[in-house]
Design a protein that fits this description.
The protein is α+β, with helices and mostly antiparallel strands. The protein has one domain. It is 20% helix and 45% strand. The chain has 3 helices and 6 strands. It has a 6-stranded antiparallel β-sheet with strand order 4-3-2-1-5-6. A hairpin with an 8-residue loop joins strand 1 and strand 2. The longest helix is centred in the middle third of the chain and has 9 residues. The model has no long low-confidence stretch (mean pLDDT 91).
Length: 111
């Protein structure tokens, strides 16, 4: 569905991938299933572990608060943007799977 490439962060998470969402406007709720991906080469001590590579992935769930639902419902923000804010993470780019390919739909300009 959506993949966010993240800016460097204390948690070491390099990507967030939303794999399923359940949006109910009637109940005013959003529930997200997502994967946190950690690129081991970005967090390992290169001197101690020069060959560190690979991706560690953890599946997680998140339910929007009423305020987060209202923010999504009344603004142009993507579900992914609100999820990242709630997790304390910032994105470099957000991509969407379309016809089996990733297409960039939003980028964040950084200085």
């Amino acid at each position: 569905m959506f993949l966010a490439t993240l800016l460097p962060n204390k948690k070491g998470v390099s990507q967030i991938e939303i794999i399923a969402d359940n949006i109910s406007e009637t109940r005013q709720s959003i529930s997200i299933s997502y994967n946190e991906k950690i690129d081991l080469s970005r967090i390992a001590d290169a001197k101690k572990y020069p060959d560190a590579s690979g991706i560690f992935q953890t599946s997680k769930q998140y339910s929007f608060t009423e305020a987060e639902f209202n923010e999504w419902y009344t603004t142009e923000k993507l579900v992914m943007e609100i999820l990242l804010t709630a997790l304390g993470l910032e994105y470099e780019k957000i991509e969407k799977y379309q016809n089996g390919e990733l297409v960039t739909i939003k980028t964040k300009v950084t200085e």
